[in-house]
Specification:
Strand content: 15-25%
Structural class: alpha/beta
CATH topology of the largest domain: TIM Barrel
Helix content: 25-40%
Shape: globular
Bound molecules: zinc ion
CATH architecture of the largest domain: Alpha-Beta Barrel
Number of helices: 11
Radius of gyration: 21 Å
């Protein structure tokens, strides 16, 4: 038995904060959560007092691209080197733990990695957050993402979409990922194809997610009954209400758009755009500026419809860490969501979307002891999540950070 104590304990239900709290861990499970004075500590010789820190559930990142080598500055090293890609993945999984992330959903990974990583976990070759994967994404010929080597299965017609779903499941997919839009208000995939993909995923008892940034694709995604809408940048309030009625969750992924916009704006404002970046700015700046403004203006209003929201980060650039969940959550707070509600989106709400709502995402008796300890009071200041002090998975310390 081990007892963790801290000045603040956030349960993860969007509401409950226990002051001078304690969490009891036994055999990888949480067996008690309460105030320190209520919990019998005499018989325990393994008590860790984290002082002014906060204890909360380990974070969940719903939109990750582990092993996405295609945008690395040294990307040529990885071409046709699946072994090296697996080692990159193992390294990034460690980085995710250090950021307080104890569960991830990888929504698009290079061919063949699902098997390697799942088997690597099973055999104890690698450690990292709980690993849920869609294997490779599925799109139509020339559709979003197909310009990236080694990432997307290109298929056409309802039958091929069904076959692609089955193939990803065969390769180890727990979820199915379909990509349907790319920066225009056109849905690249037909309604019949999307219906077939969602239906086939559900027939095989898998949930499915869809890259749908713009309104037409969002409409089609809702109609087809995908379980999560990724990005949903231009989702309207009316669409959010319809998605909510169908139980569809929204993974906003604000940070790639916000951060990308800020980075490009800084370069433009400085008047010194490196030659290598000019083409990137020409291609992306206008869209990213529009997206950033959209999130800033409408996030709060869309969230207030009550649509289920879970945190995802979608980072494929080296300028940000692999799973900057704390930064994404800060943006959610900046754009109008309450701190405890935001923490719920990154813990129990995400767990529920994953179908793990009765095992992780809450500090509650009987739940797996996936626990994050951060410096200072995260219940009143979301930036505290950046100062990771200790991370537990299944009751074992998997990361120890530097205390401030
Ligand atoms: Zn993505």
């Amino acid at each position: 038995m081990k007892i963790l104590k801290a000045k603040t304990v956030i349960v993860g239900d969007g509401d409950t904060v226990i002051k001078d709290g304690a969490v009891v861990i036994e055999k990888g499970l949480i067996t008690r959560v309460g105030q320190q004075q209520e919990i019998e500590t005499d018989s325990c010789d393994n008590i860790v007092d984290y002082g002014d820190s906060t204890i909360l559930p380990g974070l969940i990142d719903m939109h990750v691209h582990i092993a996405y080598w295609q945008t690395k500055s040294d990307k040529d090293l990885y071409l046709n080197q699946p072994g090296l890609v697996s080692l990159l993945a193992a390294n990034e999984l460690q980085q995710a733990l250090a950021l307080g992330v104890t569960t991830i959903r990888n929504v698009g990974e290079p061919q063949g990695q699902a098997y390697a990583l799942k088997m690597g976990y099973k055999k104890g070759f690698i450690t990292g957050p709980r690993y849920i994967t869609s294997a490779s994404g599925i799109s139509c010929t020339g559709g979003h993402g197909t310009q990236i080597p080694d990432m997307i299965m290109e298929v056409n017609g309802p039958y091929q979409f069904r076959a692609a779903v089955r193939e990803q499941i065969k390769k180890g997919a727990d979820w199915i990922k379909v990509l349907a839009s790319h920066r225009t208000h056109m849905c690249e995939i037909t309604q019949q194809e999307l219906n077939a993909a969602a239906d086939e995923a559900h027939r095989w008892l898998r949930k499915c997610c869809i890259h749908a940034g713009t309104t037409t694709a969002i409409d089609a995604a809702i109609e087809a009954g995908f379980d999560t809408i990724e990005h949903g940048t231009f989702m309207t309030v009316e669409q959010a209400q319809r998605a909510k009625e169908k139980g569809i969750a929204w993974i906003p992924t604000i940070i790639p758009y916000w951060n990308g916009y800020q980075m490009m704006k800084k370069m433009i404002d400085s008047g010194e755009i490196p030659v290598a970046h000019q083409a990137i700015i020409d291609e992306n700046y206008a869209y990213f500026a529009e997206c950033a403004a959209r999130y800033q203006q409408y996030f709060k209003e869309i969230a207030s419809t009550g649509i289920k929201i879970a945190v995802g980060t979608d980072i494929v650039w080296e300028t940000l860490p692999i799973t900057p969940v704390a930064d994404e959550m800060k943006l959610m707070v900046d754009f109008g969501m309450g701190i405890l509600q935001t923490i719920k989106c990154g813990t129990s709400a995400a767990a529920e979307v994953l179908g793990l709502g009765d095992t992780v995402g809450l500090l509650r008796e009987g739940y797996l002891a996936d626990i994050l300890v951060v410096d200072n009071d995260a219940a009143t200041n979301i930036t505290a999540l950046k100062n990771v002090r200790e991370v537990y998975r299944d009751g074992e310390v998997v990361y120890s950070g530097v205390t401030s």
